[in-house]
Task: inverse folding
């Protein structure tokens, strides 16, 4: 069984969705048969990395409302994250374009570390207040996954994996993905959003039963 997850590093619901999907997977008796692949998606490809602008200011400008309103929204999401055991520090978050982070995820995939890379990227962005577009940050994350620093540096200084990132983004557009997280199981069923673990578990069981029926 293959689960493909379209996601963006700066999407707060994607990290929450990851936790809820993982909770479902832990309850799934055949979890060892599930292959998870992360797919690139950019909520806003035009974002300029800016360490001088808070995420509250960025959201307010993007949505066209006050900074106070943006902070209220981020506080609401912080509470949702807390319910699944995540700590969001929006006051520390660095506004960053996610393209290079997605390229890094594809590099990690080659090393069999993509899921761990996504976890580190989310934690870096939402919890630790790190700049996930910064080369040194990504090199450090790579080292934590056992990826040689020179290999990550060489990738970041080239256009490697840009084609793969763009392919994922185009594919999302072609299948009608307008928001993330977006989960696709065996290219047949889809779940949009950070749904509850039971929703994921029901689908995993359904697909498993269908697969067994045709064996």
Result:
């Amino acid at each position: 069984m293959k689960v493909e997850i379209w996601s963006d590093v700066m999407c707060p619901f994607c990290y929450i969705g990851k936790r809820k999907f993982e909770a479902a997977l832990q309850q799934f008796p055949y979890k060892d048969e599930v292959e998870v692949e992360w797919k690139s998606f950019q909520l806003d490809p035009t974002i300029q990395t800016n360490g001088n602008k808070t995420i509250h200011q960025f959201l307010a400008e993007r949505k066209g409302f006050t900074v106070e309103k943006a902070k209220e929204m981020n506080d609401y999401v912080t509470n949702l994250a807390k319910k699944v055991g995540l700590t969001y520090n929006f006051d520390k978050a660095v506004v960053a374009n996610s393209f290079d982070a997605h390229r890094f995820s594809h590099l990690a995939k080659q090393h069999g570390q993509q899921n761990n890379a996504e976890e580190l990227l989310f934690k870096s962005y939402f919890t630790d207040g790190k700049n996930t577009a910064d080369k040194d940050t990504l090199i450090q994350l790579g080292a934590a996954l056992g990826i040689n620093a020179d290999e990550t540096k060489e990738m970041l200084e080239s256009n490697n994996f840009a084609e793969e990132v763009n392919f994922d983004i185009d594919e999302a557009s072609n299948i009608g993905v307008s928001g993330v997280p977006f989960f696709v199981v065996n290219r047949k069923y889809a779940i949009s959003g950070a749904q509850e673990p039971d929703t994921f578990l029901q689908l995993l069981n359904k697909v498993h039963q269908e697969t067994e029926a045709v064996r």
Summary: The radius of gyration is 17 Å. The first strand starts at residue 2 and ends at 7.
